[in-house]
Every structure is written in C-alpha cells, then in structure tokens.
Amino acid sequence: MQIVSDIQAILGGFRVTLAHMLRRPVTIQYPEQKRIPYPRFRARIVLTRDPDGGERCVACYLCSAACPVDCISMQADEREDGRRYAAWFRINFSRCIFCGLCAEACPTMAIQMTPDYEICTRDIMDLVYEKEDLLIDGCGKDASYNFYSHAGIGVTQPRGAGLEESKPVDVRSLMP
Amino acid sequence: MTAFSLDITLFAVKLGLVFFVILTLAAYLVFAERKVLAWVQDRKGPNRVGPFGLLQPLADLIKLLTKEDVVPGGADRWLFYLAPAMAAIPAILIFSVIPFGAPVNIFGRDLPLVVSDLNVGLLFFLALSSIAVYGVAIGGWASNSKYALLGGIRGLAQLISYELSMGLSLVPIVMLSHSFNLADIVAAQKTVPFIVYQPLAFIIFLLSITAECKRIPFDLPEAEGELVAGFHTEYSGMRFGLFFVGEYINIIVLGGLAATFFLGGWHGPLLPPTVWFSLKTLAVAFFFIWMRGTLPRLRYDQLMHLGWKVLTPLALVNILITGWWLALK
Lengths: 176, 329
Ligand code: SF4
Ligand code: SF4
Hints:
The complex is a heterodimer of chains A (about 180) and B (about 325).
Chain A lengths: L1 H20 L23 E3 L14 H5 L5 E7 L5 E9 L8 H5 L5 E3 L14 E2 L1 H4 L42
Antiparallel strand pairs in A: 1-4, 2-3, 3-5
Chain B lengths: L2 H38 L15 H11 L10 H19 L5 E6 L2 E5 L7 H22 L3 H32 L4 H7 L5 H4 L1 H14 L11 H4 L9 H25 L11 H22 L5 H29 L1
Antiparallel strand pairs in B: 1-2
The structure holds iron/sulfur cluster (SF4) (2 copies).
C-alpha cells in the first residue's frame, strides 16, 4: 500500500537524522585548530629569487596579462648590464581570486603561490601588496632553477656559456 | 500576615516564576534547536559565547535589542507595532491553564501548581490559539509588502484549517475524562496516559500543533525559499525577536499541552511531578526540532489536502469510534 511505504520512508528519514545526531561533527574549530593545507594550495603570492640571490622577475608582464581580474600591475626597468627587473610590482589581493594563472604564465618561476591563507585584515588597503611585501629571500618551488642559466644571452653571460648551449662557431672558419 | 495577603504573595511568586521559566526556556530552546540542527548536519553549532556557547541566547538578545527598528514606508504603523505582541501574548496566556505539577502544601495552604485552574481550560486554549492567528495575519497585512501579505494569508488559512483537526482530536480526551478542566484531565490519566487509548488522536494532535506553531514541515507562512521570511519579512530588531520568541514559547506551551492531554501530565514514577512534566514537554519540543532537521516543507495544496481531507475526517471517525467504545463499556 502507498501509505505504508510513505510512512516507512518518513521514519527512515528520522532514523538517518538521529544517526547523524550521534555522529562526531566534522567541524574544524578554525582559529584554535588549523588545517594544514597541501603544498600546492593556492594562497598568498610571493616573488622568489634565483639560487644566486637575484630577483627572478624580468618584468615581462605575462602574469599581469594572464590575470583574469587584472590585479597585477608593475613597471619594467633595465639595469646597467641590460638585465630587466620590475621597478615596482603590485598585487591587489582584495581582487585576486587565487586562480594561479599568473604562476602558470611566468617564464622565470618568479611568481609563485604559497599555502599561507591567513591574509585577512581589517583595512582593505592593507591587501595591496607592494614589491617589498611580495619579494622573499628564498627560491620557493624549483629551488635550483635559474632562468639566466638557460637564457639571457649577452646580458648576464657571454654567448655560448648557457647550460644547453654549444660554443658559438666562428663563421669564417666554416670553409667548404 | 493575613491569610489573604499570603495568598496574594504566593500567587505573585508563582506567576513570576512561571513567567521567568517560560521565557528562559524559550530562549534556550532557540539555542537547543541550533545545537540539535547542527548535530543533524554533522556540525557543532554555537559554542563560542560562554562555556559550550551557553550564553548565546543572551548575546542574541543584546543583538536584537540594539538593532534598528525599521517600519517600512506605507505600513500601518499601529497594527505593525501591535502584531508581534498579538503573536506572543496568547502563547504565554495558554500556559496559565496548564498544570505543571502536583498541588503542593506551603505554609499550611494547598497551592495548585497551575496559574489559573479554569474549569473550561481546554476551551480557553482553543480560543486563545485562534487569537494567535491575528498576530500572523495582521503582521502580514500591516507590513505593506507582497511577501508579508502572502505569508499572512497563508498563515491565516493554515492556522484556521488545523485548528479544526486539533480541536476535534481533543474531543475524545474530553469524552474519556468527562471534563474540560486540564487538572481533571491529568487526574484521569493517573494510571494510564491517554496516548494508550488514543494513539490516533495523539498523532493528529501532534501534526496539528506542528502546523499551529508554523514549524517545518508546515512552515508555509514563512517559507524562506519562496516568501523571503513570510509574514515577518519586514520586521527587524526586537519586534522580529518577539515573533521569534513567540514561536518558541508556542512550542513549549503546545509541548506542555501534548504532555497534559496525552502523556499523562505530571504523573510518573520516581521523579517529582514537575520534573516529569518538564521531561515530557521537552521531549515533544525535541521531537519538533528533530522533525525540522528531517522533513522538507510541504507544498501548499498538500498542506490543505492533509488538513481537510485526511486529518479532519480521521479525527471525526476517531470520535465516533471512541463514543461507540464508551457506550459499549
Ligand atoms: S592568482 Fe589569479 S587572480 Fe590572483 S594575481 Fe594570479 S592570475 Fe591574478
Ligand atoms: S612575475 Fe614572472 S610573469 Fe610576472 S612579470 Fe615577472 S617574470 Fe613576468
């Protein structure tokens, strides 16, 4: 009969909720009990340095272009030796959606995501991070990676000194 | 002290105690509801204010009292102010006829543990629960808002419909106990509570009072999903708080009535009578909360169908069967 199965269904619902009432809550009590995020968790963004201690960022604007909410802005500049760097570099974390596209776009591994998710403040202007706030002293992920050992020919090293390069050939010696 | 002034003092103390206990209980029922619903959903519920969150009702009260009291433009000001009180006061008044313990003897005087031992207590309850409809209907109408008006109309229709099955489900109780007096009804259940004789009436009564205090699955007048908050959409601050507390007072009072009519009132072995009464009342209140955590809201036509085509005829048949059974006895 319809009514019997209906009543059974309702009582079944009551049983399920009672069982859940007696179960341990899954709540994590946040400020006291912090959950440890995975290493690749995407939160606060940093600018890393290469193993020699130099800034990795070459101010190529790729991260800024990739950012879907346009929250990265910078000004490119060039050192005496021709190496590019960002004169200023700004990320507005109040707009950032932590999608990680900037870190994917970066050719030098300079911009990276860290698992530090506790960056809330009372004043929204405190969420605008300048280069000093972003730049860290370590290399972050890919610790051994140094962009200029693969590229930057003629800027930081003479021709042919890069890792995957062979010595330049003297064209005059190429006789038939 | 003269005998008269002693009587007056005892009565005032009793009144004050009942008032205090009911209001505190209502505030803590809100807390208990939030806790139980949280457990149903594998959460912890409020646990920040005070030990185990026990001061949460106090924090809520302070919040509600300090909120801005908004009256929407075009609202009927006086009725708007009046409606929350009309919803809360009948609920408290009903408690005055519920006996919550065996008569006690203080200073050589028999003190019945009921605020007012009316001989038509049951009718008084039915009359007051009809008045509670006005709070909903007037609150909805005076707000000058579509949602509130729709909620008010729904509340009106629902409460009137379920009043009927509620009243009819109580007729067998009167037939069995030969009295409209709640103390007599309790006395008639000294050995066996009426739920044993009248399980069907108990179920009908339970469903009807759920609809009467507008709780899930019968919370059509509020129906967040469709009417924002129904009849109290436009209320803010303590006026909303009054509607809210009124609802919980209603749960306590109707739980107490269920205990009185069907579960044997304050009768029970071992424990003191008042404790038994509280336990039964809280058990019904817990069932309400449990039901809220379990069942979804009915559709409006299902609600009316259940009220008019199922509960009311069933209650009538139950009266006939009870009469037949009493005549045979
Ligand atoms: S994580 Fe996404 S939103 Fe944030 S700065 Fe990078 S690209 Fe922009
Ligand atoms: S952080 Fe990377 S992508 Fe962005 S400007 Fe610097 S080098 Fe280019």
